[in-house]
Automatic annotation (TrEMBL):
The gene is glf. Its cofactor is FAD. GO terms for cellular component: cytosol. NCBIfam families: UDP-GALP_mutase. This is UDP-galactopyranose mutase.
Length: 376
């Protein structure tokens, strides 16, 4: 047993996976989190009124093509199969999301077959060589009618800027299908933990070499007391916003309790610009294997992150990337015993599966190479 302590800052997936790997290799690990709970933004808790499992920071649907990652999460808790089928509420009516043949046929009042969609859309598309932003990418794929009905208003609300300021990569997250498959994800493995994500992360952290302390604000002057520190918080915060704040969107929710079934689906997106919220989540539909008479409904609003707001979506606009580069260069020059790992520390939009894979890989790499002061 290695008596020297390793510190992991943040008890979300990144921190938990790293802590576990270190602990299994005989290291003594302290995991701290400023929040009063583990599991970061994946935190789930049964609602006291309805007994529905609520994903407190917004719904998370686990999806991956990676067998190793799938087996890893399943070894810490049972995931039940779940397919996310989103409904989009638009000015022109209610449609299936992600965009599929049903969406296109209902929207244009056509009866296209899979083999006919491509040439149909070609007449609509505003083709551009190498579309360079979200709007150009959407117009090149879908043309104006679909773009303005489904994407323009929603994206403006969600990101708080014109879609042409955003990278094309955000749109590429969403599949567009020429068949009637309305599953939101393409991944081979998809599911939701039967007893919530908190239980999974609790089980990852359950190891004799791991100590957890919650409600603790990290102070980097403590670094010297540890052999190494794995920091999973925001990189700009670590460096005291020395180069200014990195742009983030945050979300907040309005909660309501109703009887019966409120909206008939787990998620309904609201694509119109003048409706102030982006989507409505009815959490009992994320656990269709359970029965509940009452229902808890969370309406999601999006806004710019200020002060102590939780950072959710990294905007990654051009000025942000310039600032990020300054942070990375500066952090690398510090030669401190700290590694920056995960979604916030690397300022990237990462799905849970990526977070787990990177944390597993990084912990393995660290244990083998003992490389210090790394921006992963
Ligand atoms: N989007 C949209 N309309 C929708 C759904 C998504 O305009 O009905 C855009 C929006 O810009 C969003 C992006 O597509 O940020 C990616 O969607 P995704 O569902 O992956 O976002 P997330 O669920 O991660 O917030």
């Amino acid at each position: 047993m290695d008596r020297k302590k390793y510190l992991v800052v943040g008890a979300g997936f990144s921190g938990a996976v790293i802590a576990r790997k270190l602990a299994e290799n005989g290291k003594n690990v302290l995991v701290i989190d400023k929040r009063s709970h583990i599991a970061g933004n994946c935190y789930t808790k049964r609602d006291a009124n309805t007994n529905v499992m609520v994903h407190k920071y917004g719904p998370h649907i686990f999806n991956t093509n990676n067998k190793e990652v799938w087996e890893y999460v399943n070894s810490y808790g049972k995931l039940k199969p779940f397919k996310n089928k989103v409904i989009a509420n638009t000015e022109k009516g209610v449609f299936s999301m992600p965009m599929n043949l049903l969406t296109i046929n209902q929207f244009f009042k056509t009866k296209l077959k899979p083999s006919e969609v491509e040439s149909f859309l070609k007449q609509k598309q505003k083709k551009k060589e190498n579309p360079k932003d979200f709007e150009e990418q959407a117009l090149a794929f879908l043309g104006e009618e679909l773009y303005y009905n489904f994407f323009y208003g929603y994206t403006k609300k969600q990101w708080g800027c014109e879609p042409k300021e955003l990278p094309a990569s955000i749109l590429k997250r969403l599949p567009i299908r020429f068949n009637y498959d309305d599953n939101y994800y393409n991944s081979k493995y998809q599911g939701i933990p039967e007893n919530g994500y908190t239980e999974i992360i609790e089980n990852i952290l359950k190891h004799k070499n791991i100590t957890i302390e919650l409600g603790i604000v990290y102070n980097k002057s403590d670094n010297k007391s540890y052999e190494h520190v794995f920091y999973t918080g925001a990189i700009d915060s670590y460096l005291d916003y020395k180069f200014g704040r990195l742009g983030y969107r945050t979300v907040f929710f309005k909660e309501e309790i109703h009887d019966g079934d409120f909206q008939g689906n787990a998620v309904i997106n609201y694509c119109e610009e003048d409706i102030p919220f982006t989507r409505v989540h009815e959490h009992k539909h994320f656990a269709p294997w359970e029965n509940h008479e009452k229902t808890i409904v969370l309406t999601e609003f999006s806004k710019e992150t200020v002060d102590k707001d939780e950072p959710y979506y990294p905007k990654r606009l051009k000025p942000d990337i310039a600032k990020l580069n300054s942070y990375v260069t500066y952090a690398e020059s510090l030669e401190e015993n700290v590694s920056f790992v995960g979604r916030l520390a690397t300022y990237r939009y990462l799905d849970m599966e990526k977070v787990i894979k990177e944390a597993l890989d990084y912990a393995t790499y660290f244990l083998e190479n003992k490389k210090e002061n790394t921006i992963f």
